[in-house]
Design goal:
Nucleotide-binding universal stress protein, UspA family; 5-stranded parallel beta sheet; UspA; about 130 residues; 5 strands
Length: about 130
């Protein structure tokens, strides 16, 4: 079984792109398992991750593809939460969404993306957004 940890922020486009890439990974759906990680930086209403629209959309797309998944939610630093979830699950791959950047900004990743890449002890796939 190939285990993928996917960092899901509040952006639906990022979640969709990440799930598309997971679905397109080699192998059958039955050979893949996904952990969706959503980290609340601020959660005054006490919502759960499954109430976040981007997380629900990602779960629905995985259901439609026949891929088993679970949801991991936490609070604090998103990069730490993603890397910690991947380490705890001994994941094979981390998938995170990149942000649209200006030509000069493309030389650098966003702070969460960069922190995950530098802090992970496993492969990290960064998905893009359409221009």
């Amino acid at each position: 079984m190939y285990h993928v940890v996917v960092g899901i922020d509040d952006e639906e486009e990022h979640a969709q792109r990440c799930i598309e890439e997971v679905v397109n990974l080699p192998g059958d759906a039955s050979e893949k398992r996904v952990t969706l990680v959503h980290c609340f930086v601020d959660n005054p209403s006490g919502a759960s991750a499954t109430q976040v629209h981007s997380v629900r959309e990602a779960g629905e797309a995985l259901d439609a593809a026949g891929i088993e998944y679970d949801v991991d939610e936490s609070s604090g630093d998103p990069a730490d939460a993603i890397v910690s979830a991947a380490d705890g699950a001994d994941a094979d791959l981390i998938v995170i969404g990149g942000r649209k950047r200006s030509p000069a900004g493309k030389a650098l990743f966003g702070s969460v993306t960069q922190s995950v890449i530098l802090g992970a002890a496993r492969p990290v796939m960064v998905t893009g957004v359409d221009d």
